[in-house]
Amino acid sequence: MTSRSVLDISGLKVSIGGREVLRGVDLSLAEGRVHGLAGESGSGKTMTGLAVLGLLPHGARATGRIALGDRDLLTLPPRELNRVRGGEVAMVFQDPATSLHPMLTVGRQLTEHMRHHLGVDKAEARARAVELLGKVRIPGADEAFGRFPHQFSGGMRQRVAIAIALACSPKVLIADEPTTALDVTVQAGVLRLLRGLCDELGLAVLLVTHDLGVMSAIADEVSVMREGLVVETGPRGQVLREPAHPYTRSLLDALPDSSPEPPGSAPEPPDARTDSSPDSPTGETA
Amino acid sequence: MTLDIRDLVVEHRSPGRPVVRAVAGASLTVSPGEVVGLVGESGCGKSTLARAACGLNPVTEGSITFEGRPVAPLGLRRRRETGIQMVFQDPYASLNPRRRVGDQIADGLRTARDTAATPADLLERVGLPRDFAGRHPHEFSGGQRQRVAIARALAARPRMLIGDEPISALDASAQAQVATLMRDLAVDAGAGLLFISHDLSVVRLIADRIAVMYLGRIVEVGDTAEVWANPRHPYTRALLGAIPRPDGMGVLPAELPGDVPDPANPPGGCRFHPRCPLVMDVCRDEEPRFGPVACWLHEAK
Ligand SMILES: Nc1ncnc2c1ncn2[C@@H]1O[C@H](COP(=O)(O)OP(=O)(O)OP(=O)(O)O)[C@@H](O)[C@H]1O
Ligand SMILES: Nc1ncnc2c1ncn2[C@@H]1O[C@H](COP(=O)(O)OP(=O)(O)OP(=O)(O)O)[C@@H](O)[C@H]1O
Ligand SMILES: [Mg+2]
Ligand SMILES: [Mg+2]
Q1: Taking every annotated instance into account, which residue ranges of this chain make up the domain ABC transporter (chain B) (predicted)?
Q2: pTM above the 0.95 mark?
Q3: Cis peptide, bond prior to residue B292, ω within 30 of zero
Q4: Ligand 2 pocket: which residues have CB below 6 Å?
């Protein structure tokens, strides 16, 4: 399982208005791997993602190193950073309203990106856009192409934002809570899509999520943040089963339903339930 | 003080687009001191139903009454006068970006004629530092902003609180804590709480009853413990079966087979039939218009 590291964050510090919100973050993303990032609300997960894209709030100061190959994104000239952003590195924002322009149809937002970064023609861009909308499970993708963001539900907007981030086949995807607005069955589809892109195309993903179930389903490595620092990093199984840091342990203990068996999952009438082993993957449809 | 939603139909119309029947005949009640969890597939009409209950989306058919009076269409401004408060799915929709959050919470306190509590007290209750009152909404992290939106809604002491994914950005321990706080405040004050969430474990923790929605209709309602232990509608079963487990095993949860349906063009018969593993002939022909489980396998005898 040796995979090439594509993005290396080291000693990243960010301060806003004299307050240090990141205090030396180290994180590394590798080709074809999902790196899960959990942590307390306000611990700096979003700021870490924004720093990679050069999108920190006004007045923020960043030091340290964010290496994409041999380039340091923290010192890259704005024009080159612009090319990286949305091209090689894409981000799904925590708040889908930030990813989407309210006055443009989602089709336009999808295709403009592609034409700008990939140089494809209008028809090809449209075909690709409709295909992507279908992949993120938007019903009636062809018709949805012409709709405005406010004509979608919250979870659909989140999925459109994912489609836009994937439009230019990035090498690195930073996904900040990309499935919080999704029900668990649609979430399963999106997780399968992301996993497939890693396995087949070598996408490197930083997945910010507070949902440890999601983490367990898709992450290869897991890091946990607290108060501007990464307090624990390791392989998924290790961090979720034998957490070293007390905060990680407290998160696992807080899960409201860690005790009894999961709810009835067999698609048979109530009495004829044939409980499949909870660990076996069910309903493979990928 | 009951919120009573009967045979509600809500349509979204926009020029040049097909009519979207986002809520297609849904009935639901929330009694004083009761917590009802509303769950369902993304895009099935939960937010539309919630907004209609606040008078923010016009009702096409059916009725919504609160405390025996019909809920009248309202502008955002006058929402507070109805006794119903809503925490919106997008926290920016609950908060004015240009005003300090302390001032916005103070508005709520004035509505409730509460002179004892201060905005800082409310921030503290939802687990934020008192001095955050001086900040603007954009100066918060995602989870902090959600807590502010909850504090603002609670300040007005509503007799009915509707939370649309109010805590989706909080970590597991904070979710349990804030959800329980919302429940306690509502129940102690004798107010109802309609709690929309994709997080089924949180719904299980705080809801007395669960309502499951699919493509504009409520397909199953029941006692939380009962639905959890013995889900009867095939959609409810699929939903509960797709909860990913934090066991560190790397197992991807099951997807529902088939395409997510389009409310502008719903399937005939039972709306779930094209994706149902137990589909029968009758399901293709006739819609099961009964409760508490709207499924031909569970027709009341
Ligand atoms: N524009 C801003 N000005 C000043 N402080 C800010 C600003 N945006 C965020 N912060 C602060 O920076 C810290 C880190 O925020 P960040 O958004 O990275 O947290 P997070 O880990 O993503 O949390 P959440 O899980 O709630 O989204 C928080 O304490 C937050 O209050
Ligand atoms: N203003 C609008 N114009 C047209 N269609 C709309 C509008 N608002 C919502 N819709 C459509 O109505 C349906 C229901 O949307 P709603 O926001 O109620 O779903 P939801 O259950 O809250 O979903 P989510 O869990 O993703 O937030 C969706 O198909 C959506 O695309
Ligand atoms: Mg964040
Ligand atoms: Mg919604």
Answers
A1: 3-240
A2: no
A3: yes
A4: A 150-156, 181; B 12, 14, 20, 22, 42-48, 89, 263
